Amino acid sequence: MKEKIDIDKIEKKNPFSLPENYFEQFKLNLNEAITREEERAAIKSRGFWNVVKPQLALVSSFALLIVTFYFIFNLTGGAGESEFRSETIASSDTIELITPLLDEDEVVDLEEKSLLEITPDQLIDYLKYNVDLVSLSYLDF
Amino acid sequence: MEDKELLQLFNEEGNERYAFNLIVDKYSERLYWHIRKIVPSHDDSNDVLQNTLIKAWRGLPSFREEAKLYTWLYRIATNESLTFLKRAKRNSFFSLTDYDQMVENMLEADPYFDGDKAQKLLQKAIFQLPPRQRTVFTMRYYEELTYNEISEILETSVGALKASYHHAYQKVKSFLESSV
Q1: pTM of the full predicted structure?
Q2: What is residue A5's predicted lDDT score, i.e. its pLDDT?
Q3: Which of A59, A90, B1, B114 could cross-link A120 (Cys pair, CB 3.0–4.6 Å)?
Q4: Is A16 strand, coil or helix?
């Protein structure tokens, strides 16, 4: 009958061995691996910046252009809009436009004064002093 | 040289690699044997040890001495070993090979195994244990670390470690008894 193996009776020693000069060789290999890794990391970080730099410059240029256009538009936008509105009013059929707001006598008076010679600014002044805001809001431009 | 002095040297600009090599000289052997008891072959242990020390090299600049240097290195080595085993088991699942059988064959053919028949059987029994239980068993049985030291390294309570070691010991014992 074979004897049972008792864990407590097994000699407690390391049963493994190592190749000769293993740790010296390991240290050399480790240092090479670390050097390679550092070189890779350096290339990677340089490469990353090289890729990002032109894209960053492009994005910055676009942002600068947008900001510039935004300011130009905002600084000149108000004046442009009022000119546009004056011209629109002046070029439309003025009598037809303001007739619903006036009574018969005023229409005749207006026709006599040759409305076509009236400038847009004069027309605005006229409306400002003779027509109330509620009536103006009903105008169909 | 004391760990504190080694870390001071490492933090001096230009001395990093020199100090790191002193750390490697001091700890690589202990770390290798720790890994070798968890990982079934010399070649795999060599790879795990290299990964451990590369991680240590990367992590040393931010090492804040909250743990002892050797505890920290042991923790990296243990985690690397367990990650290696998990990956190996997953790969063997996909390649449809029986991992436990593969480990047994590795032990049989291991050119760096010097033990007798009983020691070979003990190794087979140890490699039947789940990886974490195997780690606890070898740290206590071979390395004779205290439960407090193991607790610091594995970040597990002493009570849980005692229970784990007890279960592992019983499994190994019954494996050996049933193998004859």
Answers
A1: 0.67
A2: 80
A3: A90
A4: strand
User: Tokens representing A75?
Assistant: 């600084």
pLDDT at B104 over 80: no
> What gap in Å lies between CA B48 and CA B113, rounded to an integer?
19
List the one residue out of B69, B32, B61 whose CA is nearest residue B152: B69
Is B80 in contact with B55 (CB distance < 8 Å)?
Answer: yes
Flag whether residue A18 sits within 8 Å of chain B, measured between CB atoms. yes
How far away is chain B from the Cα of A52, in angstroms, using its nearest Cα? 25
Instruction: Report the residue from A17, A31, A33 with minimal CB separation from B112.
Output: A17
> Residue B107 is which amino acid?
L
For residue B81, give the amino acid letter: S
B141: helix, strand or coil: helix
Per-residue model confidence as pLDDT tens digits over B117-128: 889 899 999 999
The alpha carbons of chain B give a radius of gyration, in whole angstroms, of: 18
- Residues B45 and B30: beta-carbon distance below 8 Å: no
ipTM: 0.86
- Polymer length in residues for chain B: 180
| Structural contact between residues B153 and B71, judged by C-beta atoms closer than 8 angstroms | yes
Angle at B173 between CA B169 and CA B176, to 5 degrees: 140
